[in-house]
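Look over this record before class:
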Amino acid sequence: MKQDLTRRALMTGTAATTAALAAAAIPGQAQAHPHQMVLAAVKPPITLKEGATVLLQGDSITDAGRKKDNLEPNNSEALGKGYASLIAYHLLTAHKDKDLKVYNRGISGHKVPDLDARWDRDCIELKPDVLSIMIGVNDYWHTVAFGSKYKGTTESYGTGLTALLQRTKDALPDVQVVICEPFVVRAADGSTRPDWFPEFDERRAKAKDAAESMDAVWVPFQTMFDDAVAAGTKNKHWSGDDIHVNANGAALMAMRWLGETGLA
């Protein structure tokens, strides 16, 4: 049976979103939450017109177990169980009169070249009004794992992402772009994947450069998680493996995304 977000499903999703956002609160730090000021943005950098299409793209963090044979918008199975679904539930509730279409097209394990290979089908043809991209962890991870068969470099990651964005702008000149910072949820003592640094920082800088070159909204997830850990929470409160977030981490990501885009 089709699993579109009917009134009941939407209410269920909204309740789940509210519970997840509440669960993400930093214990003992309610007055110093990392994005309270962000949520109070005066001028929304992203606007949603009537009938707008919102597309969330990326790797496993965006994918979050979505049903890949279900390509429908606003569908609970197709949206997965991560930050993308929480964003979708919020947008579909807060802007219920705008007839939005929200898609999740994240695919686990993907890198910038993988996005490029499927971009016409999974982006251009959908004609998004708002495009959010979260990509970069695998672009580094796969150079040090799996026998180091992937030979991507910091430079090729940056140029590839920039070229992908330019290709998108050429095809969809009015698209509003959101670039999400790749991240590692690090322990306070810096012991988390120490061999990734400083090169992973260089990759994150390339993502920010690409965002700035396209005048895209930048969502600083690494800074957000660093601040959350510095505020007193353990990194495992947000992620079991330092990369794939749990419900707390997904809720924190959704809150920050909504804050930075002005859609909270």
About this structure: The radius of gyration is 17 Å. Residues 154-171 form the longest helix (18 residues).
